[in-house]
Amino acid sequence: MKKTILETARLKVQIVQEEDIEPLYKDCFSDKEVMKLLLGRTFTLKETKAYVEANFSKGSILDFCVAFTKVSNELIGYIGMFTYGYNNREDEYEFGYILKQEAWGKGYATELSLGQIKKLKESFPSCTIWATAHPENMASKKVLKKVKMTCVEEQITMPKRGLRDVYKLT
């Protein structure tokens, strides 16, 4: 049985299972539109498997996990909650989400963002919460503003991610 990390009104976030890798590859990692502002390129199935094995959670809330609709159990993408590693300060966390194209424009990004913020606040009550978005990703920047995040740095280069705008929960 899959371990659920968080739930929202319409969505559930769970620990990745082997059967999730191919849908993640098909709907996210091999999709040029999904990946162009995330990592700048698509992945092969082999690269996707290696990435999932190296980066997805085995049980902690602080890692990547897969997101599903509650009603149909359809995989819509993945989310991540992490220690924020760019300030070298304790009690600072970052969240993010990656959705397949069919899930865009349905309010899922906002719902997942609010769910992740709530989960981080419950788990780490005095923490500072961060998020990043590619400067050209207008939809994600709009979501971050909607969930009360403020842009504090623009167009900084982050290792392994490239150009990003940095947001802080206010």
In brief:
The termini are far apart. Helix content is 29%, strand content 32%.
Q: How would you summarize the topology of this molecule?
A:
Blueprint: E1 4-7, E2 11-14, H1 21-29, H2 32-35, H3 45-55, E3 64-69, E4 75-83, E5 92-99, H4 108-123, E6 128-133, H5 138-146, E7 149-158, E8 162-169
Parallel strand pairs: 5-6
Antiparallel strand pairs: 1-2, 2-3, 3-4, 4-5, 6-8, 7-8
Protein name: GNAT family N-acetyltransferase
InterPro entries: Acyl_CoA_acyltransferase (IPR016181), GNAT_dom (IPR000182), N-acetyltransferase (IPR051531)
Domain N-acetyltransferase: 10-150
- CATH level-1 class: Alpha Beta
What is the topology, as strand order, of the major beta sheet? Answer: 1-2-3-4-5-6-8-7
Count of folded domains: 1
The number of helical runs is 5
Total number of strands: 8
Distance between the termini: 37 Å
Overall average pLDDT: 93
**What name does CATH use for the topology?**
Aminopeptidase
Protein name: GNAT family N-acetyltransferase
GO molecular function, one term: acyltransferase activity, transferring groups other than amino-acyl groups
InterPro entries: Acyl_CoA_acyltransferase, GNAT_dom, N-acetyltransferase
Organism: uncultured Sulfurovum sp
How does this model look, in words?
The chain is α+β, with helices and mostly antiparallel strands. 29% of the residues lie in helices and 32% in strands. The chain contains five helices and eight strands. Strands 1-2-3-4-5-6-8-7 form an eight-stranded mixed sheet, sandwiched between helices. The longest helix has 16 residues. The termini are far apart.
